[in-house]
User: Fold this.
Amino acid sequence: MTKAIYAGSFDPFTLGHLDIVNRSSKMFDEVIVALGTNTSKKSLFTADEKLEMIQEVIDEYSNDNVKVIQFTDGLIVNLAKKLDAKVMLRGLRSVADMEYEMNIASMNKTQAPEIESVFLMADEKYRFVSSSLIKEIAQFDGDVSGMVPENIAKRMKEKYYTM
Ligand code: ADP
Assistant:
C-alpha cells in the first residue's frame, strides 16, 4: 500500500491544488493532504478555517482515499515517517517552482532517503493559479471563481468584506 503526502500552506486551497490531489488519488492507495504553516508566508485564514474549508472540498470533489490532516510542528519528512508514507507529492507550475522544489526535495532526501518526492505538472488551466494572486484579486473584489472552489470563494469574500 503506497501512501502519499501532499503538504502545503493552502492559503487558500485552490482548484490547482485540488487537481493535484484528485490526479494523485488515482495513482496512490491513499493521499494525505497535510495542512502546515509556511513560516515565511503571512496567512489570511487560520489553520482551523483552512482545515474546515479543505475538508468540505475533499468531501465533495475527491475520492474516499483522500484524507486531510493538520500538522503544526516539525519537519514534513518526520510526519511522513510517522504515517509510513513513502511519497511526498508536490505540484510544478513553472521553472521557478522547479528551482524551489528541487531544493526542498534535496533537503528532504538528506533527512529521509527512503522517501521519494514525486512531482505532478500543473494542468494547463491552473498553471497561473496561485494562492497569493488569488488573495490579491479577491481583496479588490475581483472574480476568483474558476480558481478556487465555490465555498472558498465565498469565505474569501466574507473575510475581506466583513473585516
Ligand atoms: P507551500 O506554502 O508549502 O509552498 P502551497 O500551498 O503554496 O504550499 O503549495 C503546495 C504545493 O502545491 C506546492 O508544491 C505548489 O507548487 C503546488 N501548487 C500550488 N499551486 C498549484 C497549481 N495551481 N497547480 C498545481 N500545483 C500547485
Summary: Residues 8-10, 14, 16-17, 20, 38, 41, 90-91, 93, 97, 122, 126, 129-131 surround adenosine-5'-diphosphate (CB under 6 Å). The radius of gyration is 15 Å. The longest helix spans residues 95-111.
